[in-house]
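ok trying this again, last paste got cut off
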Amino acid sequence: MDTDNVAKQLRVLWRTDRTIAEIRLRHLLAGLGLRAFAALIAVFGLLMLELAAYLALVQVTSAVLAAAALGAGNFIIAAVLLIIASRAPAGRELELANEIHSSSMDALQLEARALQTHISNVVNHPLNNLIPLLIIPVATMLLKSLRSHGSSEGDPTSASPNDAPAA
């Protein structure tokens, strides 16, 4: 597990989340004022068309039937507009940001699995991680002791008093 990779992936994840949120906000706010003004004008136009249609239908049928027909027409128009509004295209940049987001999440999951494996190995086999750290100091002490033991046996100055020649 590399902490630099984790930090890098977290930064990428944060940036792509922010980019995705900005893109979605831009799509929501793009032309909202103009759309609201256009909707207001359309409502006034629809009211005038309804008034004209009502006055025309009253001459042919009863006032109640004319109002009911125009109300049903309004509901149909509203349903069509809602269906059209729900099919807003996402755009290429949102797809790209989602792609980067998912690849960053995959990399973070990979790093998390590596960390989990490392931790489980340390918990299950704690000596496996200590053995490489202890080999060099133990080998160094062993070599020093062998050298000092080997030099004391072959050194004539370190002879014991019992081995002294008889004079």
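PB: full thing came through this time. The chain is about 85% helix and 0% strand.
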